[in-house]
Amino acid sequence: MPFSTQNPRPFNKTTVETLNPNQMGVYGIYRQGQWIYVGKGDIRKRLLDHLIGDNPCILKENPTHWVDEVTANMDAREQQLILELNPVCNKKVGYLLLQASVIPLPSNSPLKR
């Protein structure tokens, strides 16, 4: 299931700073026709980090908007959204999630959390 219905907000410092700190959940960054990145954590902090270039892939893709979803179940929801939306800057993560869902990882694998 994609992000819950909401109004997309422009991906800029002004709109991100309207969020209250410590809102935990998932977020998606995109431009028309392309999901760029899905992440989790303190939504305001993470989006501000992305705006200053902590992940070069995101800014390289020229994001225009973002959406978010406050949830206590961040880990599972993030994985679900990555597999469903296939964001370009989560390709490695999405591939690993897909592989883990098809072929279970051994309990001693460094890829297991």
State the gist of this model.
It is built from 5 helices and 4 strands; from the N terminus they run βαββααβαα.
Number of domains: 1
Major sheet: 4 strands, antiparallel
Write the element-wise H/E pattern from the N-terminal end onward: EHEEHHEHH
Number of helices: 5
**CATH homologous superfamily assignment:** GIY-YIG endonuclease
**How far apart lie the N and C ends?**
24 Å
Q: Sum up the overall morphology in one term.
A: globular
- The number of strands is 4
Classify the fold: give the CATH topology. Answer: GIY-YIG endonuclease
- Judging by the overall fold, what is the CATH architecture? 3-Layer(aba) Sandwich
**CATH top level class name:** Alpha Beta
Strand % is 15-25%
- Which spans of ≥5 residues are poorly predicted at pLDDT below 50? none
Round the mean pLDDT to the nearest integer and report it: 86
Describe this structure in words.
The chain has helices at residues 13-16, 43-51, 56-60, 74-85, 91-102; strands at residues 9-10, 24-31, 34-42, 65-70. The mean pLDDT is 86. It is 37% helix and 22% strand. The radius of gyration is 14 Å and the shape is globular. The two termini are 24 Å apart. A hairpin with a 2-residue loop joins strand 2 and strand 3. The chain has one domain: 3-Layer(aba) Sandwich (GIY-YIG endonuclease), CATH 3.40.1440. A four-stranded antiparallel beta sheet has the order 1-4-2-3. The chain is of the alpha+beta class and 113 residues long. It contains five helices and four strands; from the N terminus they run E-H-E-E-H-H-E-H-H.
